[in-house]
Amino acid sequence: MARQPKQEKQPHLAWRITRTVLDVLGKIILVLLIAVGTVALIAAIAGSIFLSKFKSYVELDIIPKAEEYAEGLELDNISLAQTSIIYYTDPKTGEYHELQQLYGTENRIWVSYDDIPLDLVHAAISIEDKRFPTHKGVDWIRTLAAVKGFAGGSSSFGGSTITQQLIKNLSQEDEVTVDRKVQEIFRALEVEKRYTKSEIMEWYLNTIYLGEGCYGVQSAARVYFGKKVSDLTTAECASLIAITNNPSLYDPYIREENNRERQLTILKEMYDQGYIETEEAYQAAVDQEMVFRNGTYDEEEYTCASCGFTGTRAEYTETDGEYFCPQCGEANYAVDKNHYYSYFVDTVWRDVVDALVERYGYSELAAEQKLLTGGYKIYATIDPEVQAIVDKVYENLDNVPKTVSVQQLQSAIVVTDNRTGDIVAMAGGVGDKGGSLTLNRATQSKQPAGSSFKPVAVYAPALDAGIITPATVYEDSPLNEDRNWPQNDARTYSGLCNVLRGLTRSLNTISVKVLNDLGVENSYQFLTQKLGFTTLVDELQIGDHSYTDIALAPLGLGQLTRGVTVREMTQAYGTFPNGGTFREARTFTKVVDPEGKVILDNAQESHTAIGEKADFYINYMLQNAVLAGTGSAAAMDNIAVAGKTGTSNDNQTRWFAGYTPYYTAVVWCGYDEPEQIILDGDWTNPAISMWNQVMRPLHEGLESASFPQPENVGYYSVCADCGGKPIEACKKDVRENGSNRVVTVRLFYEDAPTKECTCHTMVKICKESGKIANEYCEKADGNTVEEVGKLIYNKDWKVNKDADFVYNPEDKEQVCTIHTADSVKPTEPTEGPSGPTEPTEPTEPTEPTEPPTPARTPMPAARKKTDRS
Asked: What is the distance between the alpha carbons of residues 314 and 300, in angstroms, rounded to a whole number?
């Protein structure tokens, strides 16, 4: 029998399951490995691309900017300090003449490294940057620790070296971002390549803020200890450096215990790091009692900007009231307490500092130091002859209008030359100027401009947009009847009124309604983008209150959140005599360094703000405001004057913004502590009074001049109540025999009215009753009827609906009720000739006939008021 083949033994079930699982896991692992490898490859590629881009970014952007920044600092030039001088141009010869040498001011006192005690340097190093003597600008150990903390969510990067802190102080870049930190690191590396440690430390200690308004250790030493920085003890040095970490927290006048605690920490660090060599010296510093002098300094010292000599007033040579440096012989005007910068020089200083900050990224303090020591030639726009006129008026308090207040009425003025648009004179206050870089009310104070703001915020942009012409009519009435707002100064409303009269009489209602048609956003954009205003408020939150100038009241009435400056207003009004072209009102044209390189080219910003038509109209309307309106006191006999007055709420400020073909000048008057201005005697607007005292002498001897007159402009008679062509009813308007209802305005040909008046009609008035004549009035014995013009009633009016000069055909009470059919006597029969002497039989008289019914005079139909055109 054949043997059966032996069956193959099958694997155990558990093994088969295990093998399947392992197979699946292997595939999963393989997929994961492929995925991880792919991700790693992508990451490597991306990282390579990122590193390549970052390398390119660093090499092409960061490093060049850092090199430029470091080179521009010129930290090594402080030892070669040169006086900067402001020059002016003689308008007759075109030659440059010196106006003012610049010198240091209080709390901005530079001290050289050699005069800084080593204990002060060591105190700064020990607490702020212990590896300062050895690192190359960046402490990588502290930087890596700071990066770790920043990645962990810390809001502060930290880790800054003294070099990096100096850069931050000079650039005022405080935002905590990776990009800023990267820039700061590379800047620090470049700074350390170019400058010595002592130069970096000198700038650091002269620019740190130490509370109480002190920038730098010299002014701080005087304020806190009443001595020169070179005379500070070790303990005082530590106390001073303690402040810099957080002046509000460690100011000894505010938190003396905090200052003491940090002072002790600094002394311990100085001892541990070997800067205080013996325990006895350390203990003596710890035990020293701190005596703070509350800002008193017995012997004021002055530093010569030319050679760096520092000494008291007694050490300077005094000749004819001027003080000269005993070392180099140069005058130091800072020594003479009565010699202060003028308001114009103050403004040049501030404008140049602002320009340096913007152009080079300096801090304000660093820019001021550059200005003081850079040996710059600054070319100013001042005209000394114009400035002399301003000074003669503003420095003499007898020229300031008298008021009943115990406060001195203040005033400020800015004058620009219309040939250039530049500022040629200014005054920031009245009377003697009490110091250098003091408050300038012409450039720094923000005040509500009142109605003087209307031409720039409302009328000029509305004219340019074609929304209005001088003949356009609005109703002088409240825009908001519920609030009865706005109100005019006289608290009355006159009804229909054209734009020319609205501006001339400074009617708030007309301004607000024109603005409402223009749109507040359009007005705001015009002011900020076309006329250069920077003080207006887009949105401001103070506590629970929100404020904005993008609204009817701020723009239409000049009731601004913060206000505007006299300089801004002068700059804006200077657009009108310049054909509608805006020009920046500069105080300087350029700044040149000692090598002749122009470091600031202050090219004038200029652009078209309004077109020729709008410019002619605004000049014409503002001339009318002077000739027949609120600015009449500013009129001159031989030279055209245009302008607008302004008064804030409660009469706390008074303005006059006026210009001629030659000059533009804006004047503000008010008090430093706001209160109502109540004049004592002369009731002329005090701003116009000050304006006249400057502008009239300024224009003496100048040729007669007027503003440009386009060829395609004519004189047109228009109805004052609708702007249409006058009809007989306009001329015979019952008000003042129509003398004010037909007015002459100047209009471009295309703006002249083409349609007749639609708001007037002729009506017959009964002389006896004074009302609309009926059919019997003319037939009444002894009565007459007169034809006059009246306004046709409009149901949409808010005022004057019931006025006696308005004709409403539906109002029966307007019609005469005295004369009726019964009141008119019938006609008596005519008697015949006398009879013969002989009596005759009487004849029957003829029956009287009924008087014929007179034709009824038709009542004129009311016509619908057309658009204001």
From this structure: 10
Task: Work out the angle at residue 111's Cα, subtended by the Cα atoms of residues 105 and 112, and round it to the nearest 5 degrees.
Answer: 140
Q: Which is it for the CA torsion 486, 489, 493, 495, positive or negative? A: negative
| Residues with Cβ within 8 Å of residue 726, at least 6 apart in sequence | 717, 718, 719, 741, 742, 756, 757
Query: What does the pLDDT read at residue 837?
Result: 41
pLDDT band at 860 (very low <50, low <70, confident <90, very high): very low
CA angle, 666 as apex, 448 and 508 as ends, to 5°?
45
Q: How far apart are CA 653 and CA 676, in angstroms?
A: 8
Least confident of 4-13, 685-694, 715-724: 4-13
Residue 274 in tokens? 């070997």
Q: What is the CA radius of gyration of the chain?
A: 42
Residue 106 DSSP class? T
User: What is the CA angle 34-35-41, rounded to 5?
Assistant: 90
| Mean pLDDT, range 607-636, rounded to an integer | 97
Rounded-to-integer distance, Cα 759 and Cα 761, Å: 7
CB atoms < 10 A from the CB of 713, how many?
Answer: 17
Q: Is 506 exposed, middle or buried (0-12, 13-18, 19+ CB in 10 A)?
A: buried
Share in percent of the chain as helix, strand, coil (round to 5)? 40, 15, 45
pLDDT tens digits for 271-315? Answer: 999 999 999 999 999 999 999 886 555 556 677 766 767 777 778
Q: How open is the CA angle 37-43-48, to the nearest 5 degrees?
A: 125
Bridge partner residues of 497 (DSSP): 474
- Tell me which of 92 and 588 has the higher pLDDT: 588
Between 261-275, 400-414, 849-863, the lowest mean confidence (pLDDT) is in: 849-863
Taking the CA atoms of residue 685, residue 691, residue 694 and residue 700 in that order, the dihedral angle to the nearest 10 degrees is -100
**At CA 689, angle to CA 684 and CA 690, rounded to 5?**
150
Q: Amino acid identity, residue 64?
A: P
Highest mean pLDDT among 135-149, 156-170, 359-373: 359-373
Q: What is the pLDDT of residue 845?
A: 39
The CA distance from 668 to 672, in Å, is 12
The DSSP secondary structure of 571-609, one letter per residue, reads HHHTTGGGTTEEE---SEEEEE-TTS-EEEE-PPPEEE-
From 669, 663, 666, select the one nearest 697 (Cα to Cα). Answer: 663
Contact (CB, 8 A) for 558 and 406: no
With a CB cutoff of 8 Å and minimum separation 6, the contacts of 566 are 412, 413, 414, 441, 442, 443, 445, 447, 666, 667, 668
